[in-house]
Design goal:
Helix content is 38%, strand content 28%. By secondary structure, the protein is of the alpha+beta class.
């Protein structure tokens, strides 16, 4: 599947979840609903995927976890916050680098409008 087609499907599922549930819930609720929608689209997903971190020759057991990995190609990082901050973007970019993944979507489900580019951001590694 083309990466643009894949991210289009993912974005459609994100909009479906947001339209149905609205803002104001915990991230875990949005994650579970989005996982359901993505599976209904016929996509392979993994949730709460552990991210290994190594420093020089030492493997660090730090417990980093990405929210959803779709088709092994796209990381979806879910937030439910007042406003997305630079640290959220940097977190996703770091996850992309650590997993050697090219594309990530950062979504703030606590927003009134996901069409605002500040609430649904595509990040490329």
């Amino acid at each position: 599947m083309d990466i643009n087609d894949l991210t289009y499907k993912i974005r459609g599922s994100i909009f479906q979840v947001h339209n149905t549930l609205g803002p104001g819930l915990f991230e875990s609720v949005y994650e579970a609903a989005l996982a359901y929608e993505l599976v209904q689209q016929g996509l392979q997903i993994r949730t709460q995927v552990g991210i290994p971190v190594s420093y020089k020759e030492v493997h660090l057991e730090m417990g980093f976890r990405l929210d959803i990995l779709v088709e092994g190609l796209v990381i979806v990082e879910i937030k439910s916050v007042e406003k997305l901050m630079d640290v959220h973007k940097k977190q996703l970019l770091t996850y992309l680098k650590l997993t050697n993944t090219k594309i990530g979507l950062l979504v703030n489900f606590n927003a009134a409008n996901l069409f605002d580019r500040e609430n649904l951001i595509r990040i490329i590694n």
